[in-house]
């Protein structure tokens, strides 16, 4: 077996496909993005924002609200990056718990956690104002133990969330799961009120409209080739011309390329894959998730799932830490889905797609500055909330000089890494072994 081929779930089978099956995100089917137009690039701007995702657009909205001229450039069309490809699942918190953050980073670590809580609230208020059609719903999150050994860790986490963070939480032993998750293969779970869902593409479209209404200019299909420091600002060299800028924000996360080498050495792009079923109908949807929770399991090769507003099961996961084709990932995810919900055997798949998640070596998000360029990225799979709020904080920093308390956290890198994650096959094998313990 090649190191680059992580084995799929036992019994992997070819997924049955709907007649209109397509390998594009479900969310694109019913989203209309504002027309960005093909206007010429301006020769100068107060701020150039690289990346038109959640981070870039919230930053542009905040920068322009302070009276500065912001230009947003993106190599693709609106919604083509991770902000239009994710599952639309939202929670507060980062991948490291608050005890670790305070022990390792002190007050800055606590500030980072507090920012993630603010991020969760920010999406709710922003969606209500800018994207009321995005179906924002606070639904709670159920985190399921795929091994009996994982229940001890979940119990510790449940106590910390309840006692230290004030979340409403409850532990569910295996017999009690039926009312929340009539599925198979789990030994219990932690239910928390820290969980919400959204239609991510419609939310992104709302952010784009907000940014444009505030005076920002969005330029799609504009590839940044390099960023040159001039001493008094920067020149952003793009495929459509150069822009002189007083400030530059790079907000490309898992799609960071050679145009931003400092960030590329610190971001690990990992593919995440998602399938969506045909609409299940009310009865079958209720059988899958009676309370319509956000759900995930304790695997390192985790699975995560939710019901869409029209009653499809949206089921995602990291089927491999190395690139695989969408059809291969689709069939692996289908097998995993049927393993959890055998009652869905035969349900057809209407959509399958992939997108890059931006991981960091310390598993923390970062908002920082290096040699005059601001960087906001590294959300490690929690980009809907963190990306939105980090963009807002970046906009405040650029427009008003309001530096976040965690901005000086070291953004680590490792020797020999230049953006191609050569080590992921070995990491994948290691984590696949851990998942069996």
How does the SSE layout of this entry go?
Blueprint: E1 17-22, E2 44-50, H1 54-65, E3 70-73, E4 89-90, H2 98-130, E5 137-138, E6 141-144, H3 150-164, E7 169-173, E8 188-192, E9 196-197, H4 200-214, E10 217-219, E11 224-229, E12 234-238, E13 241-250, H5 261-264, E14 268-277, H6 282-288, E15 294-297, E16 303-307, E17 313-317, H7 326-340, E18 349-359, E19 366-370, E20 373-377, H8 383-400, H9 424-434
Parallel strand pairs: 1-18, 2-3, 2-13, 3-10, 6-15, 13-20
Antiparallel strand pairs: 4-9, 5-9, 6-8, 7-8, 11-12, 12-13, 14-17, 14-18, 15-16, 16-17, 19-20
Helix pairs in contact: 1-4, 1-8, 2-8
Total count of helical runs of at least 4 residues: 9
- Show unreliable segments: 1-11
Question: The biggest beta sheet, please?
Answer: 9 strands, mixed
CATH architecture assignment name of the domain at 31-136 and 197-266 and 362-413: 3-Layer(bba) Sandwich
Question: Which properties best describe this structure?
Answer:
eight-stranded mixed sheet; FAD/NAD(P)-binding domain; alpha/beta; disordered N terminus; nine-stranded mixed sheet; 20 strands; 437 residues
